[in-house]
Structures are given as C-alpha cells and as structure tokens.
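Suppose a colleague, Dr. K., hands you the sequence of a protein chain of 485 amino acids and asks what its three-dimensional shape might be. Before reaching for any lab equipment, you can write down a predicted structure in token form. Begin with the sequence itself:
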Amino acid sequence: MTSNFTFIDLFAGIGGFRIALQNVGGHCLGFSEIAPDAIDTYCKNFDSTQETNFGDIRKITDMPTHDFMTAGVPCQSWSIAGKNLGFDDNRGQLWNDTLYLLNKCRPQAFIFENVKGLSDPRNREALEYIMQKIKEAGYYAQKYVINACDYGVPQTRVRIYIVGFKNETYFKRFQLPNKVENQTYLSNILDGCINLPKQVLEAAQKQPLQSLSCNEQGFNDYFLFNDLRNGETTIHSWDIEETSERQKHICMLLLKNRRKPCYGDLDGNPLSVKHFQDLDETITENELEQLVNIGILKKIAYKFVIIKNNGNTTANETFILSFAENGVINIDSLKNKREIKLKKIIVNDELKKLVDKNIIQCIEERFDFRNSKISTGLYGINRIFLPSSKIYPTLVASDTNDFVSTVDIKARTITEFRDKFMKEVYFPKKFRRISKKEACRVQGFPDNFLLPETRPKWMKLIGNSVSVPVVQVIAQSVVNTGVFQ
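The predicted structure, expressed as tokens, is then:
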C-alpha cells in the first residue's frame, strides 16, 4: 500500500528516519537536532535549511500539524555501555519531552527507537512508565525488540522500537513485518573483497548461529582479541607475545578464576599472590612481576586502610571515605555504588589523591590483566571478521577496534583454523577497518550519502543513527494499516 503523509523527525541525527519514511511516501515538515555536525550533514543531504530545524526539543512549544512522529531518543541513559542511570541521567528526561510533544501534537502514528537496554529487566519500571504515559496520552502502542540483521542488514544491531497509533482500529491492524529470508553477508558490502563461492555461503547459511556468525564447519568466522574471555577463536596477549608454557598457565589461571565471586563483587576481579598460590602453590610473586614487565598483567592497589583523617579533604574525597567499613576501603565495593556513579566520581583518581595526602594507605595489591576493557581488545584490535561472516558488530559513535580480513581462510580443524589465521591474516596484517561507504551500507544508507571527511566525525554520526532498512519496513507496515488514507 502506498500513501502520502507528513512527518516530524525528532532527535533526527543525520536523517536515517527521514530516508526510511520518504521511501514509503512521507513528506518531512521539519526536524529537531542540536549537534552541529549532525545538523550540517542533515541539511546537506536533504537540501534543508537551518530554519526547518526546530532545535532543542526541551525548548519546543509547538510544531506544525503532522501525521507521523519519529524519534530516536538519546540512548546513553539506558545503554549497557553507559552508566545505566536511566531517568537519573538528564538525557533520560528527554523521554518526558518527547511524550509531551506527542500529547500536544496528536499525530496519527509514531515510531520511537532506543537501545535494547531500555527493555532489559533493570529498566523494567522505566519502560513501564513510558508505556503508561503513552497510554495516558490516548495512544495504543506496542514495543518490539528487533535485530537489524533480520531485515537484510549485515549488522547485529538490537534495538527497541515502540510503535503507536491514535486510533485503536489501525493499531489492531499493525503487524510486524516478516524477517528477510536471504541473509546479506559481509562480503556483499565490502569493496575489493574476494568473491566467495556461492556454495560456501549457502552452506554457512544453513548452520545454526552459535555466536555472532559461524562458517559452514561451525567455526566462528571472526576472531576475538581479548584476555578476559576464552574460546576457540579467541586470541590472547600471550598468544601474540613471546611467552613460556608456564606463563601461559598462569594467565589461564587468572582468566578462569577472576569472575568467581569469592574474589570480589565485580564481574571480573584481580587476584592477590595468595589467591594465585591457593590455585597453584608453586607460583611466585616474581613470576607475576615478570608478566607485568612484558605488559600482560598489571598490579593494582586494591585495599586501603585509613591512617588519619585531618579534615583536609575535598567533598568527593570525604564522600569516598564515607564508604569505609571498619576503617578499610575496597575498590570493588566503591565501583558498584550507584551514588558514586550519580556524582560521576572517578574512584581511582580520588583514591590516589587520598594516598598522596597520607590519609589512606594501600594494604593489599592484586594482579589483573593489563588489557581489562573488553571493547578495547588487544593492541588496538577487538575483532577481525572474515569475509564469510554473516554480520558485522554494532556500529557505535565512538568507533570500535573491529576490522575485516581482506582474505578468507579454510581449515579442517579448529587448531589449523587458528594457526592459519595468525599466519595468513594477523601477522601479515591482511586486515583493515571498514570504510565510510561500507559503514553507510552496514546501516542501510546510500553510497553517495554525504558525511564529514574525518573518521571520528563520520563514525560518530553513522554510529548514532538508526538502521534505515529496519525503520523502513516498520514504517511500511504502519502505512499498510491504512492509517494515512
């Protein structure tokens, strides 16, 4: 079904919603965006003027009458990559501004998009609040958690979409579109990529998705560079650096035990010399220090005792001291405190200041992996994807350390597979980052879409955008209800 309707584009970014809605018959009456680079990019690509930008949503009091409202509400408050502060974060309050405009403007239908984190159990009350406010505004709505790869996009991008109608009749007619049967492969969107045999792709298509993606033999067709996780296609720093079997053994002990609750309250905890010796009594502190010297481990000041408190402390330092138990402070107990997150206090910085002032003293050191941030990976590499991969990881504003291999590899065993990867891909450096055009394709934007020249700028813009094909199939399903006829 085709239709002609008008729409408003809130939190417009670079116009992903606009492309999708224009493709199904929509006419944009204006947009709302405050980021200068996004505004400039939006205006260039849609031949719009600054006057069509309503500006900061918090200052909008009125808008033209329109049929369809879209909003990609800022997601940091609900994202697992953020601090999970929800409505306690000022950005979380932008949902209230969006719902205010929905109630005031009364469009026939709307689509709101946000990160999957909003639908997670930890944010259940927040999502229920949003859905209740939509209901109180007189709208009928349903929430859907959708992965972009199910709609012809070679990217794992899970998002929540809230679709609503003013009239219950059209709400009951709405049906979520069927998933696309033919998977788009990474090799389909890469420039200069080898052409994989059709039978290889078809065989891989029939394999169960055991992880992000696996080949026709069931091997992951990407390699993860990480010291905090383990798997058949995981590359550790001790696989790259020259290390002895003994050193590899010590590293694996830490990897297998650091997440056990007996060592602390965090998801991953450093271990003391005693902890290592409880696991293997032959391990010495000198051996751990050697792994520190070659850059695989790091030493952490973990537990502190208050030796004096003369009142010579800042507000943040005093706040940190208030969490001491019997005069002792543990790092893991501080990093889990929501109150500290709300105040945006950097725990390690405040502890260092207190040590420098001789107010606290370290009484326990522990050892952890130097590369202890999962998304950072190792030596600037997080993952390397083979061309046969079905999907690429979620594009994010901060860019990622993800790469694509320029060659494909095949092997009969997983050991051979790993060895060939290191010899034929990693060490010869036959891998690269995706280009600007390829990033556009991953998000469903056209090749000729205009973006800034510098990588940090265009990656921030494209990473913050919506997946165009997903929005388009949802919007087409809204149109198919006849709501705009």
